[in-house]
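Subgroup meeting minutes
Present: P.N., E.W., G.H.
Scribe: E.W.

1. P.N. recapped why we're keeping a running log of single-chain structure predictions: easier to compare across weeks, and new members can see raw inputs and outputs side by side.
2. G.H. added today's entry (291 aa).
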Amino acid sequence: MIDLHTHSTASDGKDSPALLVERAVKAGLSGIALTDHDTVSGLAEFLEAGKNAPLKTVPGVELSSRGNNRELHIVGLFIDPDSPVLAAFLEKMRQNRSKRNEEMLIRLNAMGFSLTKEEVEEEAEGESVGRPHFAQALIRKGYFKTSREVFEQCLKRGKRAYVPRELSSPGEAIAAVHEAGGLAIWAHPVSQNGGGGGRSHVKKCLAQLVPEGLDGVETYYSQFTPAQHEMVSSLAEEFALLPSGGSDYHGGNIPEISLGIGTGNLAVPDGLLAALEERWLAKREEEEKSS
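Output recorded in log:
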C-alpha cells in the first residue's frame, strides 16, 4: 500500500518529516508523499530520511484554492522543492494565511479568550500556521479539552471566529504545481473541505479543472464511503485522469486517522504510484524535448 497525502510538523501535522518516514516503514508502506499545507520546508528532511528507507518518498505539497464558491485543494506530487515559481506562490499563500490568523485572533479575543499571536505560533513547528495551532493553544490554556470542541464552537466554517481565506483559483494552483515540475491532483473531492456534494458537483468541477491541466484526482481517501470511491473512480476514468489517494494523516493532531489505513478501511494500491510516476517521467521527457 501507499499513502500520497500526509502532513508533518512543517504545517499542521504532529510528526516530524523524518518520523513520518519511520512510521511509514513500520506500517509496511511501499510509498509515501509528504504534502504539507502551503510549504515545502519539510521536504529536505523527508527526502533525506527516505534515502536509506525501503520505500519510495515523493516530494509534494497541498495548495488551497477557491472555485465554484467552494474551497478546492490541489495536491502536487513529484514537485521540485527549489522551484522559484512555486516558492513565490507559497509565500503569497502564507501572507494571506497570516492576515486571516490576525483576524481570527481578534475575534477570539472578542469572544473572551485571552490568546496572543506568540502563543499560537509556539504551537507551530513550521512556517505554516493555521487553525489547528489555534486549537492547540486554546486547549493548552484550558479553554477546551479537544480540537473538535474548538472547531465546533469557534473555528469551523460559520462559527464566530471563522475567517475565510483569500485564495487563488484552482487554475493558478495547478499552474504553480506544473511550474515546479509536478503532477496536480484534486484532493478529497467529496469531503467537507473538498466541497462536498455528489456526482454532479464533482463532474462540474472536473469539467473546469481538466482544461486547466489537472492530472489526477484522489479516488481513495480516509472519509470516502465505498459508494463515493466508486463514483470518483468512474469519473476519473471518464475524464482520463490518474487515480491517487491517501489518508490525510496529521499524526496526533487528528488521532482517528492512521497512516496508510485512515480510519481503518483505507488501502491505496501501490500500482497507482507506478502509474503516476510513469506519467510524471513522460511529461519530463516531453518538456526536455520542447526546451
